[in-house]
UniProtKB/TrEMBL annotation:
Any one biological process term the GO annotation gives: RNA catabolic process
Native source organism of the sequence: Donacobius atricapilla
GO cellular component: Ski complex
Keywords tagged on the record: Coiled coil, Repeat, TPR repeat
Protein's UniProt name: TTC37 protein
PROSITE patterns linked: TPR (PS50005), TPR_REGION (PS50293)
Intervals holding TPR repeats: 40-73, 562-595, 596-629
Segments forming a coiled coil: 3-39
Length: 669
């Protein structure tokens, strides 16, 4: 076959392909290859025809042979790209990317438009594969090409915005290089915007700041972006809110941050981050109740913010709302999710605070949970303070051997640690070894004088050690006063101050004030509540007694606060108000249906009201529960007599006289 015949055969092949006669085209090409086995065009035409005849393997082989012959010729590469782009071709995306890369190289100097088209296709391919770094680098090449060609500023701006769109999901699997390219795209888009300030520019700034907040190492850039946006858009609260939450979450709430929180609240008094900032300020200034109020309100207006839940738990702990503090720690831990990354430190803090709070609750279940929580603290086994907490949890659970082992180890390894001596004190106090406990608490106070709990327990040690130390003003009283001064929410210290003033000093008025304070701090403290009411009665101040009882009974759930219902019922009984007495005594019995004295008082109230049959049942119930209540048996007999049940009455009187021969009311009856 001559050269002329080869050209004619290739022309016939081209014609056949144009007429979609692909088999015919293959014949012509094969004839050429018999003569010239390295004919580039023949291999390209075979590739094209085979592709159309759904023979992809033959097509691929032909194109690759052509490429081998002429690696820098376009036709074979274009054909291979068309083949790989067919929907029937799967698992060739990596190969297609390589083909596009080669086409970019070939088009770069010859056809800028086609270069851009291929570049778009390559970016789309990388995006589907979630290869964000390759997306970013390829798109940047496209922008550079457009800039070199002198594209309009508006077109360049749109290209940077498109790059942001392409990379917006890349922050989920953060890799630093892609992140930096995304942030750079934002900066270029902001600088190339036409209308500044303007709505689109403002929204772009918001997106930029939101993106920056996902990169923990970009603190300086975030602060600058927020401040730049505030300068451009002084009436928009968004950058301030992000900045304020950043200060909170990063734990860098300082004097530097205060003006931002103040400015935010001036702009919007209902701003969640602003209210949170005020709450943290209150916490730092020891205004714990205001802190709890503001932080709770701020959290209702702000999405998950683990640091704020932690601060709320801290404030609740300070005012001894222990169960609420545990719930807040739980919220912080849920919001933190996994322990990795920047939240690792917050997670450890939240776990430790939760354990401390559970230990304060001081029952066996809470102690068991505290032990489980302490096990989750990363590197907790090497932290002496965490070990001391574990010892307290063991003690609360009644595991004395384990608590003592930790205590002895800590005293040897960390003799300067207050918590080690305090744990030793708690152990000896629980075993009533008061002399040893005294030394341990004094050692703890020497190392950490500002801890109210140590003073309280030293006071309790003196209170139970001996009558001498109980009465000595410089011992128990002094320690309880110090504890109350250091922690004005420590109800237990005020309760024991009340005990001291009532039982030792004989100062009923001062004692009543201390009990009242203790009860206001802890409404579950029945001892203090009862003592405050009794002392108010003794001092002739029924108004105060009733106000305490009314407050408790108003808040009480059914079946609770027996002591308050009983006290008020007895007051109504004494003051001739039998109907109110009946209602209160019934409420007391709902809390404790087996209290024989309460049944006796209820019988008395019914009798005073004239409800004799019901009164009789109440007295009988009282004597069933406690056969030694002679008065109830006598009252039952007297009521049987009033109701005309004479035989029953006589039998009951005789029953009394068998036990108590000279019981005058029964003889009389």
């Amino acid at each position: 076959m001559s050269n002329k015949e080869v050209k004619a055969a290739l022309k016939s092949a081209r014609e056949a392909i144009r007429n979609k006669e692909y088999k015919e085209a293959l014949k012509h090409c094969k004839a050429v290859l018999k003569q010239e086995k390295n004919n580039y065009n023949a291999w390209v035409f075979i590739g094209l025809a085979a592709a159309e005849l759904e023979q992809p393997d033959q097509a691929k082989g032909a194109y690759k042979k052509a490429i081998e012959l002429e690696p820098n010729q376009l036709l074979a590469w274009q054909g291979l790209a068309n083949l790989y782009e067919k929907p029937s071709q799967t698992d060739v995306k990596g190969d297609l990317a390589d083909v596009y890369q080669k086409l970019l190289e070939l088009y770069e100097s010859s056809d800028k438009q086609k270069w851009c088209d291929v570049c778009n296709k390559l970016v789309e391919l990388y995006h589907q594969e979630k290869k964000y770094l390759e997306v970013a680098e390829t798109w940047q090449k496209l922008i550079r090409m457009k800039q070199e060609e002198g594209a309009e500023k508006t077109e360049i701006h749109q290209l940077w915005k498109k790059m942001i769109q392409l990379l917006k999901d890349s922050t989920r699997n953060q890799d630093n290089k892609t992140g930096q390219l995304l942030l750079t795209a934002f900066e270029h888009a902001l600088h190339s915007a036409d209308t500044v300030p303007g709505e689109d520019h403002q929204n772009l700034y918001k997106d930029f700041i939101q993106c920056l907040s996902k990169f923990p190492h970009e603190v300086a850039r975030l602060e600058k972006a927020c401040q730049d946006m505030m300068a451009l858009y002084p009436t928009v609260s968004y950058p301030l809110e992000v900045l304020c939450l950043h200060f909170v979450q990063s734990g860098t709430y300082s004097e530097k941050a205060l003006p931002f929180f103040s400015r935010l609240l001036e702009m919007d008094a209902n701003s969640g981050p602003g209210i949170i900032g005020f709450g943290i300020k209150c916490l730092k200034e020891n205004k714990y109740k205001e802190a709890v109020k503001s932080l709770t309100e701020g959290l209702q207006k702000t999405k998950q913010c683990p640091a704020v839940w932690y601060y709320l738990a801290e404030a609740q702990m300070k005012i001894h709302e222990h169960r609420n503090a545990v719930l807040s720690c739980n919220e912080a831990l849920v919001a933190l999710g996994t322990p990795e990354g920047p939240n690792f430190q917050w997670k450890n803090l939240a776990l430790q605070l939760k354990a401390e709070t559970l230990i304060k609750i001081a029952d066996a279940d809470a102690a068991e949970e505290a032990i489980r929580v302490l096990e989750q603290i990363v590197d907790g086994s090497s932290d002496p303070v965490v070990l001391a907490l574990r010892g307290q949890a063991y003690l609360n659970k009644g595991l004395m051997e384990q608590a003592s082992k930790i205590s002895q180890e800590l005293l040897l390894s960390h003799p300067h640690l207050a918590e080690a001596h305090a744990l030793d004190g708690f152990i000896h106090y629980s075993q009533k070894n008061y002399e040893v406990a005294e030394k341990s608490f004094l050692n703890a106070i020497e190392r950490k004088a500002g801890t109210a709990e140590y003073h309280q327990y030293l006071g309790l040690t003196y209170w139970f050690m001996s009558d001498e130390t109980k009465k000595d003003k410089g011992k128990a009283l002094t320690q309880f006063l110090k504890a109350a001064k250091l922690d004005s929410y420590l109800g237990g210290a005020f309760c024991y101050l009340g005990n001291y003033y009532r039982d030792i000093a004989g100062d009923k008025s001062r004692a009543r004030g201390c009990y009242k304070k203790a009860f206001e701090l802890d409404e579950t403290d029945e001892e203090s509540g009862t003592a405050a009411v009794n002392l108010s009665v003794e001092l002739g101040d029924m108004d105060t007694a009733l106000s305490i009882l009314n407050e408790v009974t108003e808040k009480a759930r059914p079946g609770t606060a027996k002591w308050a219902w009983l006290h008020r019922g007895l007051y109504y009984l004494r003051t001739g108000q039998p109907s109110q007495a009946v209602a209160d005594l019934q409420a007391a019995l709902r809390a404790d249906p087996k209290d024989s004295n309460c049944w006796e008082s209820l019988g008395e109230a019914y009798m005073n009201r004239g409800s004799y049959s019901t009164a009789l049942k109440s007295f009988r119930k009282a004597s069933e529960l406690n056969p030694g209540l002679v008065y109830s048996i006598y009252r039952a007999a007297a009521l049987e007599q009033i109701l005309g049940k004479y035989e029953n009455a006589i039998a009951t009187y005789q029953q009394i006289l068998k036990k108590t021969e000279n019981y005058v009311p029964a003889l009389k009856g």
